[in-house]
Amino acid sequence: MNEMVKPAPKKIPGIDRETTQSMIDRTLEAYPEKGKKKRAPHLAPNNPESESACVKSNRKTVPGVMSARGCAFAGAKGVVWGPIADMVHVSHGPVGCGWYSWGTRRNLVSGVNGVSSFSMHMTSDFQEKDIVYGGDKKLAVLLKEVKELFPLTKAISVLSECPVGLIGDDINAVAKNMSAELDLPVIPCNCEGFRGVSQSLGHHLSNDSIRDYVIGTREFPEPAGPYDIALIGDYNIGGDVWSVKPMLEECGFNVKATWTGDGKIEEIAATHMVKVNIIHCYRSMNYMAKVMEEKYGIPWVELNFFGPTKIRQSLRKLAEYFDDHIKENVERVIAKYDPSMQAVIDEYRPRLEGKKVMLYVGGLRPRHTVSAYEDLGMVVVGSGYEFAHNDDYERTAREMPDATVIYDDASEHELEKFAEELKPDLVGSGIKEKYVFQKMGLPFRQMHSWDYSGPYHAYAGFPVFARDIDLAVNSPTWKLVKAPF
Amino acid sequence: MPNELGLAVKNVTPIDEQDVQRVRAWIDTAEYREKNFARQALVVNPAHACQPLGAELVAHGFAETLPYVHGAQGCASYYRSTLTRHFREPAAAVSSAMTEDGAVFGGQNNLHEGLENAVALYKPKMIAVFTSCMPEIIGDDLTAFIKNARQKGLVPDDIPIAYANTPSFNGSHVHGYDAMLLAILQTITENRLIEGRCTGKLNFIAGFDANTANYREYKRIFDEFGISYTFLADISDTFDSPNDGHYRIYPGGTPLSEAADSVNGKATLSVGPFATTKTFTWIKENYAGAHNVLPMPMGIAKTDAFLMKLSELFDKPVPPSLKAERGRAVDAMTDAQQYMHGKKFAVYGDPDLILGYVSFLLEMGAIPAHILCSKGSKKLDRELRALLEASPYGTNAKTYMNRDLWHLRSLVMTEPVDAVIGDTHGKFLARDAKIPLFRFGFPVFDRVNMHRSPIIGYQGVIRMVTDICNKFMDMADENSDDRHFEMMR
Asked: What stretch of H or E contains B186?
């Protein structure tokens, strides 16, 4: 059910299995024996027809290699919980984790900050004595203070940092007691950063907390409609949700909840009442999509809203779950936006045709954005994920051209070597990578945060995406890098 | 219903708009302020990070030195991202990538494997190891682990490994800077003190300073004097490196041989008294030559004191060029004083910076009404009080130690000020109070090149006067009605 329309394998002149494998081998030469052995299975040439993962994934990060990965806390607070606007998120433990993740993901929210939305850094700021005596009592006091000072909060999440799990605090018991005392959902999430191998486990643990403490605890008062859907796995980076939601509404859908970009916790809690769940970022939210399918019989459909080709395919795929009314609407919407999308392509494609892109991101982007670059006439010559699993790489195989290099949890050394050999015209990756490549004179866009731009999703997003890619690739500043003397 | 909290299932109810308006007004009141200041456990929007961030910053200040986070992988990513967002430069660091099994077996295997890989891939000349939470809680013994790594031959003998304990549940990034700097100097100067040798140089430490132009400004001042120096923990080239098409993992930092020889210096001067407390105590006992600590040279008086100390230590007069510069800075202040006189400011940030802001504001006749440090101390409070009491513009100022930016929000809403000096994190309270924020602190995530222009020395005075006064004049232009919109300001 999650099959995208299958394209024929794409080829890139000069890239074949042998050239890619030998590039990988050269890159691995720098490692000591043990490190080489561990890293080798994570790097491979793509095989689009295999429909299977060409690399190993979701393994422990190799120490000392300069990985770009984050941790379970980052996946929980930064990705899943943080974007839920109308509740307070407590970074429970020392001051740092919540401070580093405060406002640094660009998940935009509605509401009045500090009143009805809470994009703030609230923490128990653990000190030595909390480590020694435990933080449960402090947490109980803290939760009361949250309710008193932020009376309109719809819930509170308690997100554990490393020390909490190591000293054996029981935040689940505190949460349960305080929920009753405050008559307010207090949702615990044991997302200590040392758990698992990357931010991915933090997504999973957060999904589990939603399953155990959130879903089904609220109901929509209005009668259910035939076109009620939820948008899952869109985090409203640079306003993505505010681009996708109107597009879906124009197609006749009622978007009852957004998970979790600009999310409302009560709407999330009542999502068990919708007809279909759309999942955009499969990696971070597939767990709850599956839970709702099993428990409430809600089908889910994995869609891609990057670039007109995928938007068209996705809307038609979604329409398959509904009646002719929706199908007609979808065709009308596609027909309405096709000319403006073509105009964007006509404007930018001549300047971007044939340009090579190297991607290294997380979540859905290493595969979902490939087609959007292709809409602009570009080719993606390498792609990989920080924290993907096997099923992500299975889905990637068919999107990427034949024999292009696929890298899992790439180290900075590997990315640098691949860029040196592949000579991309654009690198799309994260903040830690950005200036490494820019110092190499390579145009770069941050593809986690849309580099302080956006939205990139749906019809409102593609013109912004195209403009940003063009301004990065064709900026005259790159021509100044080499001094004439 | 799957409801493990035992709460009743309810209808989805949107937040009532009237409630929003009521609470919105309430959080600006004195009543709310009182409740806000009564908090015991909850910290909201603190203006400090944890120790390892400072440890990484200082490690980047030494040539070919690889910062190494002993702890979980995610910690390293947080520090690197923060430094990179501020400087818009790469911040290369690795980690032990400890996971659950570390809690059972300890982190030695991860550390050893990490050191071996890091040496092979990134070819450092020194490794600076510092800890995040996990190894601190499970009690990893770094001394033993590193000794064992040496015995196993995982790190060549000519690569020093400095290591520091930097628990995140204690102190702030400023303390982590101190701890790592101390460890690096102890490691690198070991057995290097030579009886009777004197490098003739000044050893200089800037403290936790994330403004690369400040570093360049200090060096320019030393050059004007003709003082040869070793700038310890010099991050200026690391975090302000040229784009010439070539990525260098270690683009700058104090040369290690120079840093090692610093123990034989003629004088050692720190301008980060709060950021180098432990380091300086150790230096006093172990370094040859004179030892001095001065406040960060911000404003005229503190810059004067700095120059006079250099003059005294090296028996050289203050160069005429700097005296002329002083005159130009004072000229800039007298020209612009009318735009700042009597204006009220809220200031917050790291201890050394706050003392500098306050000195500067008092010199301009501005009033530092609210002075807040979210990781302060009695000592800092005393020093601030002494500064304030010495000026008629300080009499109504209040200091707030160990309070956060949500407290500061209450302060600026109930006792309004004209502007805030701090870092990017203050932008929300500044917006609520409809006043400008001057981003002289760390980190700055939302403006470019703030670290490429100094705030120390006489040049720093000119920069701060310019930024602040021009902003006030921009506001006068933006806010005036047609009748008062004038050619001149």
From this structure: helix B173-188
| Token duo for residue B406 | 């949500």
Distance CA A450, CA A464 (A): 10
Cβ–Cβ gap B137/A216 under 8 Å: no
Q: Which helix (H) or strand (E) holds B399?
A: strand B398-401
Domain count, chain B: 3
Test the A interface: residue of B117, B427, B451 with most A CBs within 10 Å: B117
Q: How far apart are CA B125 and CA B64, in angstroms?
A: 5
Tell me if B23 is assigned to some domain.
no
Considering the domain architecture, whether residues B317 and B240 belong to the same structural domain is answered as: yes
- For chain A, the C-alpha Rg in angstroms (whole number) is 23
| Residues of B in Cβ contact (< 8 Å) with A139 | 41
List the catalytic residue out of A44, A68, A72, A74.
Answer: A74
How many other CB atoms are there within 10 angstroms of residue B90's CB atom? 26
Q: Alpha-carbon distance B250 to B63, whole Å? A: 7
Active-site annotation holds for A203:
yes
Tell me what pLDDT residue A43 has.
Answer: 98
Residue A140: both structure tokens together = 């109980």
* Judgement on whether residues A102 and A46 belong to the same structural domain of the protein: no
CA distance A70 to chain B (A): 4
Tell me whether residue A389 is one of the annotated catalytic residues.
no
Question: Same domain, yes or no, for A117 and A61?
Answer: no
**8 A C-beta contact, residue A208 and residue A179:** no
Taking a C-beta distance cutoff of 8 angstroms, is the pair A81, A261 a contact? no
Same domain, B340 and B312: no
* pLDDT of the residue at A7: 61
pLDDT of A396-453, one tens digit each? 999 999 999 999 999 999 999 999 999 999 999 999 999 999 999 999 999 999 999 9
Domain with B466, as residue range(s), is 334-479
The CA distance from B8 to B460, in Å, is 60
Residue A441: list chain B partners with CB under 8 A.
243, 245
CA distance linking residue A257 with residue A245, whole number of Å: 10
Contact (CB, 8 A) for A397 and A47: yes
Tell me how close the Cα of A46 comes to any Cα of chain B, in angstroms: 25
Among B20, B84, B94, whose Cβ lies nearest the Cβ of A112? B20
Single-letter amino acid code for the residue at B134:
M
**Rounded Cα–Cα distance for residues B481 and B478 (Å):** 9
Residue B124 sits in the same domain as residue B172:
yes
What is the distance in angstroms between the Cα of B456 and the nearest Cα belonging to chain A?
A: 27
Q: Is the ipTM of this complex over 0.90?
A: yes
Mutate to test the interface with A, among B1, B5, B16, B404 (most CBs of A within 10 A): B5
Q: What is the pLDDT of residue A1?
A: 40
Over residues A352-400, the pLDDT tens digits come to 999 999 999 999 999 999 999 999 999 999 999 999 999 999 999 999 9
- Position A5 scores a pLDDT of 56
pTM exceeds 0.80: yes
State how many domains chain A has.
Answer: 2
With a cut of 70, list the residues of chain A below it in pLDDT: 1-7
End-to-end CA, chain A: 60
Query: Which positions of chain B have pLDDT values less than 50?
Result: 1-2
CB contact under 8 A, B246 and A198: no
**Is A105 among the residues known to form the active site?**
yes
- Residue A8 burial (C-beta neighbours within 10 Å; 0-12, 13-18, 19+): exposed
A389/A401 Cα distance (integer angstroms)? 20
* Cα nearest neighbour of B39 on chain A: A145
Note whether B211 and B135 are same-domain residues: no
pLDDT of residue B6: 78
The verdict on whether A97 is a catalytic residue reads no
User: Å from B220 to nearest chain A CA?
Assistant: 25
Is A183 close to B7, i.e. CB distance below 8 A?
yes
Tokens of B282: 């150790």
Catalytic site residue from A71, A85, A97, A155: A71
